[in-house]
Amino acid sequence: MKYLNNTNDERQTPEFPESIRELMSVGLDMKLHMVQHHAQMAYLLAGELLNDELEYLTGEKHERDKPLGGRFRRWGTNPGSVRIDNERVPIRVPRVRDVEASRERPLESYQHLKTGISIDERLEKSILLGLSTRDYASVAEGLLGGFGLSQSSVSRAFQERSAKALEAFEERRFDGDEFLALWIDGKYLARHQIVICMGLTADGRKIPMGFIETTTENAEAIKGLFQRLIRRGLSFDGGILCIIDGSKGLYKAVRDVFGEFAAVQRCQWHKRENVTSYLSEKDKPKYRRRLQQAYELPTYKEAKKALLELHTEIRKLNRSAANSMMEGFEETLTLHRLGVFEQLGKSLKTTNSIESLNSQLGKYLRKVKHWMHSDQRQRWVAMGIMEAENKMRRINHPEHLPMLRAALQKNIIQNREKNAETEPAQEKSFN
């Protein structure tokens, strides 16, 4: 255990572990999320922080084996207050006695709270997590005795911070990262179509890179998104895996911009659902399961054989379902063809990763009841994306990503060989 020098005492007091210090600095954000609209919001916000430190020093109330050798004891409470912006909110503050030093031990978390909680830093999360600007002032006034805030001042503060967030999101660079894959997906968010691109780095991190607001998933708009990402440092000359649903506009944009460097993986989940959508309710569960089992086979040869056999069977039931199955068929097996399905298929065979991001965005954006203009929509989307990014985890088994890099580089060579074979044939037919 490390110790801090104490000028008022020859003995030294224990330094708090990093987890406690981090809790003091960011815990309020988490607590505010947990206790939104709760009748005891103010007291829980500060009280839980104080109690965390109290239990670290003295242990639980009736615990026999006390931490830190039993040096610190509970010593009642004192009236205190927490400064929130320009207002002080009353709270009971636990007292702790240092038995060895024969004096009171002030709580560090209380000293931190006394210095003031910056509304600017907390407010954006509160609004995104569902506490609207209309509610904020009334809730605070009723429960905390008033923060001295009005709806208009809260709205202005959020607009300023969200505008800066949007600018920062649109300008951040990608020169320092190697990207091996992109997920691209469009969702109807904020009453408009929002197409988002999220990248996968060589060390397994998922990074939302950009978005556009458009009416449909049209190729020209998405090409513009890709080109802006390239100007901001996205490099793909080592090959890039593009994971998309069945949108023709997305596919065309990928091919037009990335060309021979792109390997397209069509989402297997979307393909399965599209095929079974043509079938009767009685047949859907059976063929959904069998399609899933076929796609889960580890090698390209095995999976393709099973799927083609299944296609023959489905064609007898419903020709439209069979036709849907063959549309983009080879691209649903790209990971198999690259030889990395067993290692990375769980994370890269579907658009689930970006669907999860879209789901988080939907939770934030549905809190807004009145959309006024594009600037507002894009500010909220940027804030929501950056909030969701903080919760993203690395993909499963990032240690296998070097296999993907090698497979993508090999894929580029194969694409060039195919192009070289077709070009003379085209010239001959033209002549």
Q: Compute the CA-based radius of gyration.
A: 28 Å
Q: Which stretches are low in confidence, meaning pLDDT under 50 for 5 or more residues running?
A: 1-11, 22-43, 136-149
Order of helices and strands: EEHHEEEHHHHEEEHEHEHHHHHHHHH
Share of residues in strands: 15-25%
What is the count of structural domains? 2
Q: What this model shows, in words?
A:
With 431 residues, the chain is an alpha+beta fold. The protein folds into 2 domains: 3-117, no CATH class; 177-415, no CATH class. Helix content is 53%, strand content 16%. The chain is built from 17 helices and 10 strands. It has helices spanning 18-34, 41-58, 108-114, 119-128, 133-144, 151-171, 219-231, 248-258, 268-276, 284-295, 300-317, 319-326, 334-338, 341-348, 352-365, 374-389, 401-430; strands at 3-4, 13-14, 72-84, 87-98, 103-104, 179-189, 192-201, 206-214, 240-244, 262-266. The strands form 3 sheets. The protein has a 5-stranded mixed beta sheet, with helices on both faces. Strands 3-4-5 form a 3-stranded antiparallel beta sheet. It has a two-stranded antiparallel sheet with strand order 1-2. A hairpin with a 4-residue loop joins β7 and β8 (206-214). α1 runs antiparallel to α2. The longest helix is centred in the C-terminal third of the chain and has 30 residues, at 401-430. The chain is elongated, with a radius of gyration of 28 Å. The relative contact order is 0.09. The model is unreliable at 1-11, 22-43 and 136-149 (pLDDT under 50).
